[in-house]
UniProtKB/TrEMBL annotation:
InterPro entries: AAA+_ATPase, ABC_transporter-like_ATP-bd, ABC_transporter-like_CS, ABC_transporter_ATP-bind, P-loop_NTPase. It comes from the Bacteria. It is a peripheral membrane protein. It comes from Floridaenema fluviatile BLCC-F154. This is ABC transporter ATP-binding protein. The lineage of its organism: Bacteria, Bacillati, Cyanobacteriota, Cyanophyceae, Oscillatoriophycideae. It is found in: Cell inner membrane. The keyword Nucleotidyltransferase does not apply. Keywords: ATP-binding, Nucleotide-binding, Transport.
Amino acid sequence: MYLQITKLNKDFQTKNGTLVVLKDINMTIKQGEFICAVGASGSGKSTLLRQIAGLDNPTSGEVRIDGEVITGPGPDRGMVFQHYTLYPWMNVQENTEFGLKLQGVPKKVRKEQASYYLSVVGLANFAKSLPKELSGGMKQRAAIARALASEPKVLLMDEPFGALDIHTKESMHEFMLDLWQRTKITVFMITHDVEEAVFLSNRIYALGARPGTVRKEITVKLPDRSHSVKRHTIFHDYRDELMELLRKHGQEATAVAA
């Protein structure tokens, strides 16, 4: 599997004229990679994710998955949002089966598939629980299980841990790395959290703002992915490089806007 983004541009028409949100975006994501796109507000991160998800069409350029141009949503892309988007009247099992039900998957098959992924994310014992009975981290695990149940080629994540407290977020980071290593799923995640991106990803695309452009592609090579690596010099070097990039291009964007 590979995801290819080529010369992607996205404009919006406003009462003040044309607003260029994404400009000349080029990215390649290969099977089994964990990729993060990092940028401040105004860098078009969410707009970029919507193009990949097929929720919106580019002004020009294209997004391909396995050579096929993306023209709309599809089961080959699973989506996880910052806010859990679980249906409150459905229990965890029903939420996890929901996408499969829409696809017309037979009841027995979708139950087995959903149960398997609830086991993978550690929620097998909470299958009959309602979302209101779960913690924030557990809700996000349920949302991830639902996205994985359709067995997509790539998991798209829209700042999935942004609403969690720091301790839950760190726990979810470790969970996500373990899940990625066990399932070999391809992940494309957007975030504004630089440390999160360095800790989780094997490659990072740093986005500048107004318009959103790829300023730099960084390959991350850490000695390990344990929590203690955050104290390592090389982790600090990656973090500081990204922070400086975002700070510099944030100042440039502010100067242009002024």
